[in-house]
Each structure stands twice: as C-alpha cells, then as structure tokens.
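AraC family transcriptional regulator CmrA, pasting as requested.
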Amino acid sequence: MAGIAEVKDLVERHTNVEGVCTTAIPRLSLYRFSRMLEALHGVYEPSVCIVVQGRKRVIAGEHLCTYDVENYLLVSADVPVVGQVLEASRDHPFLAMLMHLDAATLAELMLETDVEEPNHGITGSALAVSTVEPDLLDACARLLRLLDSPEDVPVLAPLVEREILYRLLRGGQSQRLSQLATTESRLHDIKRSIGCIRENYREPLSVEALASEARMSTSALYHHFRAVTGLSPLQYQKHLRLQEARRLMLGGEMNAATAGYSVGYESPSQFSREYRRLFGAPPARDIARLPLSSLEPI
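Structure tokens follow.
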C-alpha cells in the first residue's frame, strides 16, 4: 500500500511550476508553493484537498480550518474563502492535490453501498477536516501514477476517482458527502441558492426570491446559509463582486471605477469602501502591491 512518501514524490514530480498545475485528469489539480504566501481570496468548489507536504489555513466567514499531511480538507459547497500557506520553503515546498467532487458519482455509490442515509438537516460549515486514512492515500497514489501513462487516463481515472469517493464516504465526512449527493437535503437547497447568487451576482439581491428558490423561509435561509458558508447571502454576494473586480484590475483589464461598475456597484465610493473593508486597502493601493500571481486560485 502506498504511503505519504510515494504520494509526495508523485506530486512533486508532476509540479514543475509554482502555483496551481492542471493535469491530464480533468478533475485533478496539483499545488506547489516554495514560500509562505500572504492570505489570498478565492472561491472553493466542492472538492477534497490532500496535503502531502506543508500546512495550510483556510477561513470562510467565521469558520477556520487548518490542514496538513495528517488531515484532508473537504469542501461541500461553493464558498468564498481566505487561504494561506503556513509552511513552505525552497527545500520543502508546500505540495498538495485537489480533486473536485462529482455529485452524480456520489449518488450512485450511495445506492450501491450500505452508506447511512443522510440527515437532511444542515451538518455545519461547508469546510471540514478529517483524518487521512491509509486506504484513501493508496487510492490517491494510484490516481497520480496515471499521470505517467496519459493513454490510460480516460478509462482508469474515473474508476480510481470513484474509489476515492467511496473511501471518503466511508470516512469521517460521510454525512456531508451524502448531503451533497441528495436532492432532498438542506445542503442541496442552500447550494441551489448559492448557484442563483453566483449566476446573478451583478444584479440586486432579493432575499425573498432566494428563499423561495431554496424552498424555505427568509429566516431559515439566513440561518442555514450562514451555517454552510459562514456568510449571509448579502455578504456572499459582496465577496463574489469584490473578488471579480480585483481579478479584472489585476489583469489590467479595468480601472477601479470601471471594475466596480462592471460587477454591480453604482456608487464608486461604496465600492471603494467595501473593497477596503475586505482586502485591507483601497483598490489602487491594493492592486499596486499585489503580484500577478494573486490571480491564481488558492
């Protein structure tokens, strides 16, 4: 059975550049950072992240998770986060693998196995940390080995990804994963409202319409939405707007006034005020101090 040393070697061998490396396996990305980074803002989608060297911290609203070689991070909904690599150096870079979760495959596995039926109520934050078990690590090693034989990826990668999901379902986050795959769960309802905000983040937010889409009262929406994302619906929308405006300015596509207007702000002063509150500096000063690499997902 593969151990952490083999998985680390595989990740290191297939990360020849700093930052995020895409792979021939569509849902798999690899990470390499040779220095500790300042906190970076981004949006995590449903995924599992397994660190093979170093340590990282991620914050969503009031929720904070720290994960390392012994504990993986599970994300069960799209959530704005602030992430920071805590341990990394040139000799011992931060190394990790991230696999996006496929809800349809999870649902199939639930039908084929004796996984406990999910509690349809909210299980808590979309971010959770659990122990990396040997069987999970072994399956991850076999997925990474496929990068050495790209011709095998179309046939074998889906099978190994399926095993990884099975191992996760058997682990400490079974309830979260089951809710992710079940259309009757509260998590699925909140994911529906999250999708509405992400698709229409430039438009004025109607909490009543959002609650109707999520099939719950406005008070229940606030409660469950904050439990999952650590943010209220309005705060969630603000994070999306400001992160997109920052991306546009960092890429040199727009100045602050144009970027603010393009993401839904009608008042430049309100845009500047909320931007400073989130990123710690007004737009022009923030962009001047940031490298282009800050565009990379975290």
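Note for the archive: Residues 233-250 form the longest helix (18 residues).
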